[in-house]
């Protein structure tokens, strides 16, 4: 489903975020990526979504070489990926429901169908009653759930999450992780970057550890 | 197809919503565009009216053949015969000196002057319609007639029409240049409004790209916004002209009454109105397209 071979990412200015990274994730797997901050966890996830391009090596997602993908093909790749961003990227001038509707609108969904699916997604993360609220009025854990609802509303086959529990207390973090695990259990491939050691011990997923941009096994 | 329509309807709705979010900004920019558009459109309108009014006077080119005052009846029949046989003459009308005088008496203002004349100063005349409208052929015909016996004066009536024509052509060129310049101005105005819109919607655009929006999806509401802005600007120009014509026609009616003629300025025909609106929205669309192309690629998710 996702495979990296000899992937190196060097940012302008010379900083090498990833060095010769190679791994493969099968369909339906749940994988945690850990490592100190600056180890390259975010860069790795961004390469999967073609937000960044590898300097060398190849990134294959769904059998497509993402690194060499034409710009016009990238939207269609991303429609099959659900992403939860470290900085959330919620739109604060829109309601909760409208935030979740966005991924459906970009594919041209009819509004009524889209609203139905968006409510189902909000229901899955326990935010059904808050659809008219503004994201700014939500608590930290609720905002993170909103991000997850937006990530899964288009029913992607891959879910990427960059430090989804970083700013949450243990109880909230546990609930968020349970949501991810539920998606994993229905066959979604889940890739999560975290340094939440307690969570890893509880869930016992496959773990890849990054150290200064290289995979440590 | 349905999906395509849905997407376009959504983009249009989004563009409309943006308009009503900041009504004063919208009105101000529409007014500016309306004024800019009303100048060339107004110039065009004046030319059209001038053309229309001149067309009432200037039908086919005429040649007036005035005979000498001492021309006899046989001279008259002679000339009539020549005209009937000439291949270049389509038709002609004989205007006797008595009829010419009667006609002159009938026209406003000069009746008293005519009355005070002792005798009829007018010559017999033929008004000739030529077959060709070509200036060279007409001139040749005029010269030929001038050589006929007892032909006192031959006048080609298209001379003033030609002058008016040249003047109209000059006016059209001036209006055309004005239109091009102001269109460029309009293009820049839309370009800038859309640029500001893009900047204020940076976050939205970034998130849309992250969840799989194509460039087309992101571009579409801006294009609609540009076209809508142009369309409403064109409509504002139309309204400005309508108001101006209403005022002018009021004043013109008084003037026309004094001169005992009928003068009225007409607004753009439905066809020209459609062209104006189409052109305005097209320009808005193009301005938005240029702006989006220029500024959208600068927004890439990080």
Descriptive report:
The complex is a heterodimer of chains A (217) and B (302). Chain A is of the alpha/beta class. Chain A is 34% helix and 25% strand. Chain A has helices at 41-48, 74-78, 96-105, 111-124, 140-152, 170-185, 197-203; strands at 2-10, 16-25, 30-34, 56-61, 64-65, 81-84, 158-162, 189-193, 206-211, 214-216. A six-stranded mixed beta sheet of chain A has the order 6-7-8-3-9-10, sandwiched between helices. In chain A, strand 7 (158-162), helix 6 (170-185) and strand 8 form a beta-alpha-beta unit. Chain A is globular. Chain A starts with a strand and ends with a strand. Chain B is an alpha+beta fold and 302 residues long. Helices cover 73% and strands 8% of the residues of chain B. Chain B contains ten helices and four strands; from the N terminus they run H-H-E-H-E-H-H-E-H-E-H-H-H-H. Chain B has helices at residues 2-21, 23-57, 73-85, 97-106, 111-116, 135-146, 158-200, 202-210, 215-259, 270-295, and strands at 62-67, 89-95, 125-130, 151-156. Chain B has a four-stranded antiparallel beta sheet. In chain B, helix 2 (23-57) packs antiparallel against helix 7 (158-200), helix 2 (23-57) packs across helix 9 and helix 7 packs antiparallel against helix 9. The longest helix of chain B has 45 residues, at 215-259. Chain A binds chain B through residues 49, 51, 72, 75-79, 81, 83, 85, 89-91, 102-103, 105-111, 150, 154, and chain B through 2-4, 6-7, 10, 203-204, 206-215, 217, 301-302.
Q: Flag low-confidence runs of chain B.
A: none
Instruction: Quote the beta fraction of chain B.
Output: 5-15%
Low-confidence region ranges of chain A: none
Q: What is the number of strand segments of chain B?
A: 4
- What is the N-to-C order of secondary-structure elements of chain B (H for helix, E for strand)? HHEHEHHEHEHHHH
Note the gap between the termini of chain A: 20 Å
Major beta-sheet overview of chain A:
6 strands, mixed
User: H/E element string of chain A?
Assistant: EEEHEEHEHHHEHEHEE
β-sheet strand percentage of chain A: 25-35%
Count every helix of chain A, treating DSSP H or I runs of 4 or more residues as helices.
7
- Order of strands, widest sheet of chain A: 6-7-8-3-9-10
Q: By helix and strand content of chain B, what is the structural category?
A: alpha+beta
Q: Please tell me the overall pLDDT of chain A.
A: 91
- Helical element count of chain B? 10
């Amino acid at each position: 489903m996702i495979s990296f071979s000899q992937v190196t990412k060097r940012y302008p200015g010379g900083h090498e975020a990833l060095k010769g990274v190679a791994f493969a994730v099968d369909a339906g797997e749940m994988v945690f990526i850990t490592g100190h901050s600056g180890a390259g966890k975010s860069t790795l996830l961004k390469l999967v979504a073609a937000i960044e391009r590898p300097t060398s090596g190849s990134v294959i997602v769904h059998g497509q070489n993402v690194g060499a993908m034409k710009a016009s093909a990238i939207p269609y790749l991303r429609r099959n990926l659900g992403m939860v961003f470290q900085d959330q990227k919620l739109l604060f001038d829109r309601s909760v429901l409208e935030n979740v509707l966005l991924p459906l609108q970009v594919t041209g969904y009819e509004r009524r169908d889209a609203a139905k699916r968006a409510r189902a997604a909000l229901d899955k993360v326990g935010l059904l009653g808050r659809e008219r609220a503004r994201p700014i009025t939500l608590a930290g854990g609720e905002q993170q759930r909103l991000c997850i609802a937006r990530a899964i509303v288009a029913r992607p086959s891959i879910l990427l999450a960059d430090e989804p529990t970083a700013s949450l207390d243990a109880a909230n973090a546990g609930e968020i992780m349970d949501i991810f695990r539920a998606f994993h259990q229905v066959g979604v491939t889940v890739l999560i970057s975290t340094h939440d050691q307690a969570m890893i011990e509880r869930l016992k997923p496959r773990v890849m550890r990054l150290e200064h941009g290289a995979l440590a096994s | 197809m349905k999906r395509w329509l849905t997407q376009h309807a959504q983009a249009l709705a989004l563009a409309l919503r943006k308009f009503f979010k900041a009504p004063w900004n919208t009105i101000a920019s529409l007014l500016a565009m309306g004024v800019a558009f009303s100048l060339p459109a107004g110039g065009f309108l004046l030319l059209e009216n001038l053309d229309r009014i001149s067309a009432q006077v200037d039908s086919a080119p005429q040649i007036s053949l005035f005979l000498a005052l001492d021309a006899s009846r046989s001279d008259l029949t002679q000339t009539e015969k020549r005209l009937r046989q000439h291949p270049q003459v389509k038709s002609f009308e004989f205007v006797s000196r008595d009829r010419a005088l009667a006609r002159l008496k009938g026209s406003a203002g000069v009746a008293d002057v005519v009355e005070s004349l002792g005798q009829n100063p007018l010559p017999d005349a033929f008004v000739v319609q030529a077959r060709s409208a070509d200036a060279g052929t007409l001139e040749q015909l005029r010269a030929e007639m001038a050589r006929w016996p007892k032909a006192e004066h031959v006048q080609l009536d298209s001379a003033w029409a030609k002058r008016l024509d040249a003047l109209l052509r000059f006016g059209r060129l001036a209006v055309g240049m004005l239109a091009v310049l102001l269109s460029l101005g309009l293009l820049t105005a839309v370009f800038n409004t859309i640029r500001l819109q893009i900047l204020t919607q940076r976050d939205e655009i970034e998130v849309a790209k992250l969840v799989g929006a194509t460039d087309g999806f992101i571009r579409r509401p801006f294009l609609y916004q540009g076209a809508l802005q142009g369309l409403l600007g064109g409509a504002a120009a139309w309204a400005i002209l309508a108001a101006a014509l209403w005022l002018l026609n009021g004043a013109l009616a008084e003037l026309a009454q004094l001169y005992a003629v009928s003068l009225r300025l007409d607004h753009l025909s439905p066809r020209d109105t459609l062209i104006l609106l189409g052109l305005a929205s097209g320009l808005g669309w193009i301005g938005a397209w240029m702006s989006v192309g220029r500024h959208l690629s600068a927004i890439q998710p990080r």
